[in-house]
Amino acid sequence: MEQKRIQPLARDAMAYVLAGGRGSRLKELTDRRAKPAVHFGGKARIIDFALSNALNSGIRRIGVATQYKAHSLIRHMQRGWNFFRPERNESFDILPASQRVSETQWYEGTADAVYQNIDIIEDYGVEYMVILAGDHIYKMDYELMLQQHVDSGAQVTIGCLEVPRMEATGFGVMHVDEKDEIIAFVEKPADPPGIPGNPDMALASMGIYVFHTKFLMDLLRRDAADPTSSRDFGKDIIPYIVEHGKAVAHRFTASCVRSDFEREAYWRDVGTIDAYWQANIDLTDITPELDIYDSSWPIWTYAEITPPAKFVHDDENRRGSAISSLVSGDCIISGSTLHRSLLFTGVRANSYSRLEGAVVLPNVMIGRHAQLRNVVIDSRVVIPEGLIVGEDPELDARRFRRSENGICLITQTMIDKLEL
Q1: 230 and 173 belong to one structural domain
Q2: Residue 171 domain-assigned?
Q3: What class of enzyme is it (predicted)?
Q4: N or C, which end of the chain has less CB nearby within 10 Å?
């Protein structure tokens, strides 16, 4: 008879979040902040999803490696994630690239970002390491992935998405056998291998890895001593294990957390302006694909103390109203009309303005008579009175960052250059 586990494996695991990337495809949104620090969903930051998944899964030791323009990310985590208590065997470490190994060396790759903090990790004495990317939107129970890792006897277990085969060309793709053991790991293949029994689909890496801690530390030391290595999990560590050991794929559908309202397994890389806008606007649907109202799997974040949102004026053409929209605390909709828009904390929308398909980051001021359609507005931007965006594509492209799908990113620098 199989012996039952006394406690969840997550209690003996550390989540290590790689949050150092810029996310250059988000253009000016990441000029002042790292991609994981970009706002999402009205209240949260992108990194809150990986951190919340770890917390909700039962993991109580978390480390976050930061590098690129990390101040706003670090400030957010200090404000919103400072409730871990050492006396309860909990810890939350922010690990900036601090030249711990060499006085001339920043984090050189994803594996190096873990290697440079080996002494901190080993001090905790955890049995398992869950390596996470800090820049994706999804809900996942890592305990189920840990259980598969232990039960399969794998040296590494890799979180994978099932995607249409020819859409996997931009991912690292797992070539697996019938038992989901990984035969080969191919980075951005032109002709991705299909899944056995389902050849039209492929398994794409989510950038989520589970290791036994001692095995990972030994592997990182070996990799650090190799002068030809690029110090990267996807390019060096994973291919080495696939060739010399046992690597197993873990399908996201096996551990994706879904409420009663979520039909499909939800995962998004919001790494472009179009994808970022779409994922935020999707939340305004009557039944969105991502349920952020699911209290059984909350998205933890910095909870600002704010007054409620306020809607004022009830005159013809000057009515504070919002249809199919999300409006955060401390917003004042003063004689403005919102349709299918998402407003973060502290937005002021003034009289006679109209927003449609607008993602408005915190503390934006929208002037009277502004007409804004299909826009992303960076935080603290002051929109001048009468500005019209979304009607003239050529004019929009000259003044703002206009995406392939016609979404305009607006920053204060762009506004300051306008000749009104």
Answers
A1: yes
A2: yes
A3: transferase
A4: N
> Which residue, chain included where needed, has tokens 């004019």?
395
Q: Is 35 part of any known ligand binding site?
A: no
Q: State yes or no: 52 annotated in a binding site.
A: no
Residue 63 assigned to a binding site: no
- 334 assigned to some structural domain: yes
Could you give the count of Cα atoms lying within 13 Å of 66 in the half-sphere of its Cβ? Answer: 20
Residue in this structure with the two tokens 């009663």, named with its chain if needed: 260
Give the pLDDT of the chain (420 residues) as one tens digit per residue: 445 567 899 999 999 999 988 889 999 999 999 999 999 999 999 999 999 999 999 999 999 999 888 999 999 999 999 999 999 999 999 999 865 555 556 788 899 999 999 999 999 999 999 999 999 999 999 999 999 999 999 999 999 999 999 999 989 999 999 999 999 999 889 999 999 999 999 999 999 999 999 999 999 999 999 999 999 999 999 999 999 999 999 999 999 999 999 999 999 999 999 999 999 999 999 999 999 999 999 999 998 999 999 999 999 989 999 999 999 999 999 999 999 999 999 999 999 999 999 999 999 999 999 999 999 999 999 999 999 999 999 999 999 999 999 999 999 999 999 965
Domain around 393: 310-417
Contact residues for 149 (Cβ-Cβ < 8 A; gap 6+)? 128, 157, 210, 248, 250
Task: For residue 403, give the CATH number of its domain.
Answer: 2.160.10.10
- pTM of this prediction? 0.95
- The first and second tokens of residue 223, run together, are 């990799």
CA pair distance 364, 386, nearest whole angstrom:
15
Residues in the chain: 420
Query: Quick check: is 350 in a domain?
Result: yes
Same domain flag for 55 and 189? yes
* 310 has binding-site annotation: no
Residue 58 is labelled as binding a ligand: no
Q: Same structural domain for residues 322 and 221?
A: no
For residues 394 and 318, the answer to whether their CB atoms sit within 8 Å is: no
Residue showing tokens 């392939």: 404
Distances (CA, A) of 258 to 263, 294, 339: 8, 9, 27
